[in-house]
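lol ok so funny story. i was supposed to be doing the assay writeup but got distracted and ended up predicting the structure for this chain instead. priorities right. anyway since i did it might as well share w the group, maybe its usefull for someone
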Amino acid sequence: MKLLIVEDESKIGDYLRQGLTEAGFVVDLARNGLDGHHLAMTEAYDLLILDVMLPDVDGWRILKSLREAGRNVPVLFLTARDNVDDRVKGLELGADDYLVKPFAFAELLARVRTLLRRGAAPANETTLKVANLELDLMRRRVTRAGHRIQLTAKEFALLELMIRRRGEVLPRSLIASQVWDMNFDSDTNVIDVAIRRLRAKIDEDFEPKLIHTLRGMGYMLDTPDEA
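and the output, tada:
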């Protein structure tokens, strides 16, 4: 997944970029609001981490521009001011979360993962569909070709992640961090077992096959023509 950090404090920006990169994310870092505004409006990101107080274009303006453009990418605000009015302003403008400096990196990482699991679906989007597979996000219900499929909570989360990232190769490390909220251990086969069980439920008795294995790279969900 691809993140954008907009932070004018060099040490904090470098620290966040290194930590999030080591956690398995692709990270762009903008060191001023003007560059951050340009990247946020022209590139596709899964999540933005915005410093509120920037010397040129501040975090409020970047967020306002995004929401006015109809872009629903999750936004986590960073600020040195623990002010209720500031938090309310950010949430009213469409921020998804708010973290006050100084903060522990573990807390930021947990919030990032939570926001990414929540996704950037529009408020009125209640279903996800690929071919004849459908996820009802409100009722947590899965159907394939009209047949109800029973999934565990983790299987549902895994399938939701794969559909939201349709057509992208998802490495095991990313799946582990997003679904199990853990660092990937190369000695464990928990990801492979989960994929095998999910495939048995949604692919084994149906066509077209949607879950694909890319040896040495990871897994992908898509229709055969696209895959």
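The helical segments are 10-22, 33-42, 59-68, 84-93, 105-118, 153-164, 172-179, 190-202. The chain has two domains: 2-118, 127-221.
back to the writeup now i swear
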